[in-house]
Design goal:
By secondary structure, this protein is of the alpha+beta class. The chain contains nine helices and nine strands. The protein has a three-stranded antiparallel sheet with strand order 1-4-3. Strands 2-5 form a two-stranded antiparallel sheet.
Amino acid sequence: MKIPYKHLIKNINPKPDINELSQRLFQLGHEHEIIDGIFDMDFTPNRGDCLSINGLLRDLKLFYDVATQNNIYEKDIEPFKFKFNNNAEKFCTNISFLKVEVDAVPSNYSGSLENYFQDLNIKKNNFFTDISNFISYETGQPTHCYDANKIHEPIRLDFNKKKCQFETLPLAIMPTILLLESDFELYISAISNSLMLSFCLLSLYKRFLTRESFRSVLKKVLLESKGLSTMTDFLVLLETKGSLMTS
């Protein structure tokens, strides 16, 4: 994960220089490189809680006075009557939905949102995807935006019980994934670990020069994961295979 130095120190007082901040991060066990004023973080799989600005700032509170300022909507929010069936509650205990009406989609960004794209040289997609990505980057909270007019109720979170194919995001990494009945347990387990799994996949992907080499690693891991009993075992295997093939 890449985080610009100036994004981190914005809420830290007194503001350390980049070398001091680097030493503090190493003390906390966060391996990284510094390239053009940007920390290229290499988090371990068990520290998914640090995959955001606020996540790192929580750790840095050990050394600094950190003031995180969050704008909170304090007015009443009407109940959202939405038909949703959670048939996998054991694996995903809580999902929240919020309906938002947007008067006009802005053509230009400003402030922290614009800095996020400019400082990290990230390509903009569309307003709703960009907002979701920024919220995840800043808070670590994954969100998804959908057009309410295109959703047919009820929707459900359920188990995969048959052979099927679905498109992934981003499509440039893995256009489609084929799920078989034998992948049933892995697929369901991944629901409650989606953020950590996504991090492992992307942290491995950035090590490879081609999409094909990444797919090769993922295929080997999936083939060897059939006997694994927990998601943690799968993540460890994934990280190990990736390290062996890129060392």
